Structures are given as structure tokens and as C-alpha cells.
């Protein structure tokens, strides 16, 4: 089955965000709220996570929600606030694109295009993002096999973009105690199979605030090149994913642990 791949054959591919290479020695630490809720909220959190050691800012402006009645995101207004937060802090912006019709709009505001779990199989979107020059954060589909995930990345590569960062964000299993089951084995497998950097998302991977720290460290031990974590100033009142969002004080501790871990690896 692996011979269906022409480009992502396992040879290491260097991926950079705004000129900075992503690898285990220089882990990507993406932090921020699940969703951009207001100008003030995203600027406040951006400043906070920057101060604590984040290397990129996350925040959804287009939110693919299970319920049509749930907060759908601020859309272009949210992208503008993200850009402003990025200009203030110097952090590159990572945010989800839900439809190819937004590509031109995203080009103006965003540094990394995120393909969410619900869109990993959206081959029309993947083909269109293949033509984009900026890096793509490709999350694993919540019910996708490793092989399907590899081929989703191959779509981006085949259509012209090998600047891909893979993200393990948990899969659906029989167990509902956690929101998803974080598939740690997928991390070394995807690194070896594709040659691309792989990061871990303990927030969507577990859905539980108290599990973010241990699963961050587990992901890094498994060889992850970084992490994406939901951090919120007021998680109890977050418009989405409050239960899995950590407080800045918890993020501070996690960054310290990541740094210690990196030092011990050298
Ligand atoms: C997110 O990052 O906010 C998100 C919606 O993630 P996923 O696509 O992994 O569910
Ligand atoms: Mn979320």
C-alpha cells in the first residue's frame, strides 16, 4: 500500500514557518483559544502565551461546530483580530480554513492554514491548498486510519505543497471517558512514513484540562516536533471547548516542562 505514494516516501522534508524550521530541537508551541471570541480576548491571550513561551498563536475564526446553533466563529472579523494580535506579539497565526473559497481571504491574514479533523477527507479543499505556498497544518480525521491520513498529506504534496505539519488530535474509539483517544503510536509512525514534522494536540485528543500536561509530555516522548494547546483566560465562559482549555498558569508550567525535556534530549 505504501507504493501509492510518490512524494511523501519518508525522506525528511524540512518545513518552516516564517523562516523558522520545525523539529524536535526547536519544537513548535502553538497556543491560544479554541475560537477568536473578540478583539480584546485574542489580543489578551496572544500577549499572555507569547510571554509564557508560545511560538505560534492559534484561534478559530471559522468554526466547524457539531451543532448549527453553537458559536460559528467571527469569520473575517476574527481573522483581522488574529492578524492584529500577531503584529503585536510577533507570533505567527495558525487558523482553520473550512472551504477553498476562503483561500484568498486567508492569504491576507494567516501564516499557517489549518485543515481540521472534519475536513481531512475534503479532497477538493486539499487540492486547492496544494497550490498555496504557506504551510498547512493537517489534522488527522477523527475516524481516519493512518494510511488515509498519509494519503491526505500526499494530496497536498501532489498538488504542489510539501510544507505540511501533521497533527495527531485523537480518534474516536469505544471509550467515551475522554473526548477522543490520543493515538500516540501514530506520531513516530507518521514521522517515519512521511518524513514530515508531526505535532500533538492533547486538547482535542483528551477533551479534559487535567490531561493536557501529561499528554503533551507523552507526545513529545513519542517524538512529536511540537504541540498545539488550547489556552483561555476564562475557560469557564469560553464559547467553545472550555472544558479542555487550560489557564495561562497551567500553560506556563507545561512550557517549562517542555523546555526541561528538550534540554534532557540534547
Ligand atoms: C480546533 O483546533 O479547534 C479544532 C476544531 O480541531 P479538530 O479539527 O481537531 O477538531
Ligand atoms: Mn477546539
Mean pLDDT: 97
| Rg computed from alpha carbons, rounded to a whole number of angstroms | 17 Å
CATH C-level class is Alpha Beta
Q: Uncertain regions: pLDDT < 50 for 5+ in a row?
A: none
Alpha-beta classification: alpha/beta
**Number of helical elements:** 9
The span between the termini is: 36 Å
Structure write-up:
α4 (about 125-130) crosses α5 (about 145-160) and α8 packs parallel to α9. The protein has helices at about 40-50, 75-90, 105-110, 125-130, 145-160, 185-195, 200-205, 210-220, 250-265; strands spanning about 15, 20, 30, 55-60, 95, 110-115, 135-140, 165-170, 200, 225-230. The model has no long low-confidence stretch (mean pLDDT about 95). The chain starts with 15 loop residues before the first strand and ends with a helix. The protein is an alpha/beta fold. The chain has one domain: Alpha-Beta Barrel (TIM Barrel). It contains nine helices and ten strands. The protein is globular and about 50 Å long. Strands 9-8-7-6-5-4-3-10 form an eight-stranded parallel beta sheet. The structure holds phosphoenolpyruvate and manganese (II) ion. Phosphoenolpyruvate (PEP) binds near residues 60, 116, 118, 139 and 204. Manganese (II) ion binds near residues 34 and 240.
Relevant terms:
binds manganese (II) ion, 266 residues, 10 strands, single chain, two-stranded antiparallel ribbon, alpha/beta, binds phosphoenolpyruvate, TIM Barrel, globular
Sequence-ordered SSE layout with sheet pairings:
Layout: E1 16-17, E2 20-21, E3 28-32, H1 39-52, E4 56-58, H2 76-89, E5 93-96, H3 103-109, E6 112-115, H4 123-130, E7 136-139, H5 146-158, E8 164-168, H6 186-194, E9 198-200, H7 202-206, H8 212-221, E10 226-230, H9 248-265
Amino acid at each position: 500500500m505504501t507504493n501509492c505514494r510518490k512524494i511523501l516516501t519518508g525522506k525528511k522534508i524540512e518545513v518552516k514557518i516564517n523562516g523558522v524550521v520545525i523539529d524536535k530541537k526547536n519544537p513548535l508551541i502553538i497556543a491560544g483559544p479554541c475560537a477568536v471570541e473578540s478583539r480584546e480576548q485574542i489580543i489578551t491571550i496572544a500577549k499572555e502565551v507569547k510571554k509564557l513561551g508560545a511560538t505560534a498563536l492559534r484561534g478559530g475564526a471559522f468554526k466547524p461546530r457539531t451543532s448549527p446553533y453553537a458559536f460559528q466563529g467571527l469569520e473575517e472579523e476574527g481573522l483581522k483580530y488574529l492578524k492584529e494580535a500577531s503584529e503585536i506579539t510577533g507570533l505567527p497565526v495558525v487558523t482553520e480554513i473550512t472551504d477553498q473559497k476562503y483561500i484568498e481571504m486567508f492569504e491576507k491574514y494567516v501564516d499557517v492554514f489549518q485543515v481540521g479533523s472534519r475536513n481531512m477527507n475534503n479532497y477538493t479543499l486539499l487540492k486547492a491548498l496544494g497550490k498555496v505556498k504557506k504551510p498547512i497544518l493537517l489534522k488527522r480525521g477523527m475516524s481516519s486510519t493512518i494510511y488515509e491520513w498519509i494519503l491526505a498529506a500526499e494530496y497536498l504534496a501532489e498538488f504542489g505543497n510539501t510544507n505540511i505539519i501533521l497533527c495527531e488530535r485523537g480518534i474516536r474509539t469505544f471509550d467515551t471517558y475522554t473526548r477522543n483517544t490520543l493515538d500516540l503510536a501514530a506520531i513516530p509512525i507518521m514521522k517515519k512514513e512521511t518524513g514530515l514534522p508531526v505535532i500533538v494536540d492533547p486538547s482535542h485528543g483528551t477533551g479534559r484540562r487535567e490531561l493536557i500536561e501529561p499528554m503533551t509530555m507523552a507526545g513529545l516522548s513519542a517524538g512529536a516536533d511540537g504541540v498545539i494547546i488550547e489556552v483561555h483566560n476564562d475557560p469557564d465562559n469560553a464559547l467553545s471547548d472550555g472544558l479542555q482549555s487550560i489557564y495561562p498558569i497551567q500553560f506556563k508550567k507545561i512550557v517549562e516542562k517542555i523546555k526541561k525535556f528538550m534540554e534532557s534530549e540534547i
